[in-house]
Amino acid sequence: MASNKKSKKVEEIENQESLVMDDAEMNELMEQEGLSADFEADLASENPETLSEETLSEELSFSDEDAADEGSEENAEPSDDGSESIFISDDQMFSIIESMLFATDRPITADYIKQAFKGTNIRIKRIRKALQEYSEKLASQDRGVYLEQVGGGYQLRTKQDNMEFLSRTQKGRPFKLSGPALEVMSIVAYEQPCIKSRIDEIRGVESGHLMRALMDKGLVAFEGKSELPGKPMLYRTTKKFLEIFGLRTIKELPSLEEIDQLIPEGIGDEQDDTQLSDLTDSMSMEAAMSYSENEDELVKIADELSDITTSTDFFEQEKIRAREKRDK
To answer: Are 153 and 243 in contact (CB under 8 A)?
Structure first.
C-alpha cells in the first residue's frame, strides 16, 4: 500500500511540466517528500522484471502445482456424499462386484453394492448396467454359474445342467415341504395379506401348526394386524420365499388360470375319478382271478390308487372364482 502511494508521488513529481532536474535534485526532492532511502528496493520488490531468478523460479513452480491441482479437481467427479472422489476403472469395478456376489449366499441389491463404492466415481446407474452386462457374460453355455435376479436382488447360482455332477460331492440338505405345508404356502401367497382363519376356512381344517412350521423356515412372516374384530394377525410371504421359488417379486406368481392350463385336461373331474376307480376295480378282479403270492400287495395298491386326489379344495374354489370372474 505504501509503495503505491510512493509511486503516485513520484509520478506527480515527474509529470510537472516545468520541472527539469538531475539525479541529485531528484534525491533531494524525494527526501523532502519523506520518501525512504530504500524506496527503489521496495519498488523493485513489486516489479516482476527485477525479481531474482530464485524467487521467480519458486513462484513459477508454485503456479504449476496449483494448475495441476486445479486440473485434477475439475476432472474428478464429486461423490454422492460430497467428499473427494476416488477414480475406479471399469475393470476394477467388475472385479469388486464379482467378489461381492461370491462372498454372500443371499441376494444383494444394487444399493447394497453401491455402499462399497462410497467416495468413488462409480454411480448406482453404472452398477446396474454392470450387473446386466455380467449376467449376459455368464449366460454362455461354457460357464458353470449364472446371475439370477431374485428376491429383489442379485445372486450367483449353479446351473441346473451340472446338478447331477454336483450331487456326487455336495451333500446339501434338501429343502422339503409336505403337501399340506405347500397348500398353506399357496394360500398365503395368493391371498396375502391374510388371516389364519381364512386359511382354515379354505382348507377346512386347523392350520396353526403348519403356519408355525412355515414361519420357522422363514417363508411366512407377520404383516401386521387386521382391522377385523379382535384384530387378528395378518400373514405374508418373505424374501426367502421369493428366493426359494426363483421369483423377483410376488407379481411373478403364475395366475390360477395359467396353473389350470398346466394341469392335463380332465384331471380332477368326476368322470376321471370314476375311470380311475374302474381301473383299480378291474385290477383287483384280475388279481383275484389269478392267484399269486402278490395278491395282498395288489389289493393294497388298488386301495391306494382309489385314494389318490388330483386337486385340493383351495384350487377348486379358486378355479370356480376365476371362471365366474371371467364370465362377468
So the answer is: no
90-166 matches 179-256 in fold: yes
Q: Is the pLDDT of residue 114 over 90?
A: yes
Q: Which residues contact 318 (CB under 8 A, 6 or more apart)?
A: 190, 256
Percentage of the chain lying above the pLDDT 70 cut: 55
CATH code of the domain made up of 179-256 = 1.10.10.10
Domain spans of the chain, in order of start: 2-75, 90-166, 179-256, 264-310
pTM of this prediction exceeds 0.70: no
Please give the CATH number for the structural domain made up of 90-166. 1.10.10.10
Residues 6+ apart with CB under 8 A from 58: none
Helix (H, G, I), strand (E, B) or coil at 149: strand
Q: Provide the H-helix boundaries in 115-263.
A: 124-138, 163-166, 179-191, 196-203, 208-216, 239-244, 256-262
